[in-house]
Design goal:
Length: about 575
């Protein structure tokens, strides 16, 4: 799909556009608040140490509450979670405005700021798992993430600038009130957005009625939807490396401006502006690549660009070169971040996205705090050139290893014939209610095979190794009640019927023999890939097991055979 086509489709998605616009307004308000808060604390105490403690205290809730926030996002209506937490933060902003206007105690101001951050921790896991429910097609995921990141970085540029104007005219109270108003704007938008559970996506089949659990003695309970641990660990590793570097850069800008570049303390502001400008450019650039079916190359490209520019920053001797290097580093970091987010949304089941994002947010925050603590100390002893060069190597190592762990998860298959077959099978009623992209990408790990008439595909008593879906032709299912007995014909299966899953689910040998009645073409999926498919949605395993209830086993039944 072309970039223009992808973004035209995105702009036609009214609910998604309204959400992104509302969050953009809210992000501007957040930056107004953050700048105003730091100025207010410093004006009230004139103590840089207290300023640092407030900054650290705002990070701590992300470490302690991010996973909890992910669990909440997975268990409750994500739209309502965003709505409740935004309203809570809006009320806190009103309280801060009242304290500022009435010259209230500093301890109360700091306490409310930390409380606001506790509610803020719910935003990342919730918006990251809610946004995919508003796209009408999986191809909109990447552009939606790119658009959100672009708007967020634009807010990073606009918010502090507006805050500077307000502070210059003595408008700290107005800054808090404006942030409260921004929460009101997004709350109204969220309230009017559709319920994602009642809004089927265009690439998902209409969910069918949930089948009852199997009544067969000895069959296992439904496998819960699980997390794809290997690719998730890879994405976490990418985030850890980038977070560590970014945490250090946020503190080292003062050292770079004054000592290495010799541009004075005012250059710190220019370097921070470079971070914002580069982030905005990187977010926009990501929009050109996230429409690709394979995202491994853009992920690695973002990591390499970030690392090379980071090393170049350590070698910079002028403010102009340092500005460019920092902007490029920020752009590479944002490119990798948007691609990583899109991959996570592709490969993690919808009911587990909150926990996945919460986990990565926790480890990323810890890495950020570690970088902010360690890199300035190391730079004092080793010099910024060596420290930034070593950090660049660390980022590349973590990023490349992470990309290897991610592998081809979330990619579309390159074989057009297999891709077509996988897309067709993903639309069968058997997989209703499960994201079609997840089903198709897992099925694409299989292969298409052709079997001549009269040839046995699976034999009763053999170990279960593969799951099959008939693309063309028909098969006969037979079973012998005891060794040497004449096989009994159970049924005939045709196109779009499936067989071979029961043994994979239970670990038991094949319970029937399946023979090609006519020449057949099959989509065959290996055992490990099939079990990954089962974790795509909690409804699939019970549905498969329910197909083998005794009442369903009749010669005329058009459902998978008990093999």
């Amino acid at each position: 799909m072309s970039v223009l086509t992808a973004y035209r489709r995105l702009l036609r998605n009214g609910p998604l556009v309204r959400l992104l616009g509302g969050e953009f307004v809210s992000s501007i308000g957040d930056w107004l608040y953050l700048v105003a808060l730091l100025v207010l604390v410093y004006q009230s105490s004139s103590d840089p140490l207290l300023l640092g403690i407030v900054g650290a205290a705002r990070v701590l809730p992300y470490v302690l509450l991010s996973y909890v926030a992910g669990v909440v996002a997975d268990r409750f209506d994500r739209r309502l979670v965003l709505l409740v937490t935004d309203l809570a933060r809006g009320l806190i902003m009103l309280a801060l405005a009242a304290l500022q206007a009435g010259h209230g105690p500093l301890a109360a101001i700091v306490g409310l700021a930390i409380l606001a951050t506790c509610f803020s921790t719910f935003f990342g896991p919730t918006i990251g798992s809610y946004l995919p429910s508003l796209v009408t097609n999986e191809t909109e995921l990447g552009p939606a993430n790119s658009a959100w990141s672009s708007l967020d970085n634009l807010a990073f540029v606009i918010g502090p600038a507006v805050a500077g104007v307000l502070i210059a005219i003595g408008g700290l109270t107005v800054a808090f009130l404006l942030n409260a108003a921004s929460f009101g704007v997004i709350a109204v938008i969220l309230w009017r957005l559709p319920d994602p559970k009642a809004r089927p996506r265009a690439d998902d089949p209409t969910p069918s009625a949930e089948p009852a659990a199997s009544g067969i003695p000895g069959t296992p309970a439904a496998r819960p939807a699980g997390l794809p641990l290997r690719p998730l660990a890879g994405l976490a590793l990418v985030d850890i490396g980038a977070g560590f570097a970014l945490g250090g850069i946020g503190i080292l800008t003062v050292v770079l401006a004054t000592r290495q570049l010799g541009a004075g303390e005012e250059a710190t502001g220019y370097l921070n502006a470079a971070i914002g400008v580069g982030g905005l450019l990187g977010a926009i650039a990501s929009g050109l690549v996230v429409v690709r079916s394979r995202l491994a190359l853009p992920l690695v490209a973002g990591i390499v660009i970030f690392s090379v520019a980071l090393a170049g920053l350590g070698l910079s001797s002028s403010l102009a070169v340092g500005f460019v290097m920092l902007a490029v580093a920020s752009a590479g970091s944002l490119l990798a971040e948007v691609v990583s987010t899109t991959l996570l949304q592709r490969i993690v089941p919808p009911d587990a996205r909150g926990r996945a994002i919460g986990t990565i947010q926790t480890v990323g925050t810890l890495a950020y705090a570690a970088g902010a603590f360690a890199l300035p100390i190391l730079a004092q002893g080793l010099g910024t050139e060596r420290v930034l060069g070593g950090t660049a190597v660390l980022v590349v190592a973590a990023g490349l290893l992470g990309a290897v762990l991610v592998g081809r998860a979330g990619d579309e298959v390159a074989d057009p014939q297999l891709a077509t077959a996988a897309q067709r099978v993903a639309g069968l009623p058997l997989f209703a209610g499960i994201p079609a992209f997840r089903v198709a990408s897992t099925l694409a790990r299989g292969s298409t095979i052709e079997v001549a008439a009269g040839q046995a595909i699976i034999r009763q008593g053999d170990p279960a190794d593969r799951f099959y879906v008939i693309l063309d032709g028909s098969v006969e299912v037979t079973r012998s009640e005891q060794p040497g007995a004449t096989p009994v014909r159970l049924r005939r299966l045709g196109p779009d019927d499936a067989f071979g899953e029961l043994g994979l689910l239970t670990g038991a040998p094949r319970s029937a023999t399946v023979t090609a009645e006519t020449p057949v073409r099959l989509l065959a999926l290996g055992g490990p890939a099939f079990l990954d498919l089962v974790t795509a949605g909690p409804e699939l395993a019970p549905r498969l097991l329910a197909l083998h209830r005794p009442a369903a086993v009749t010669p005329a039944s058009p459902v998978p055979a008990p093999a």
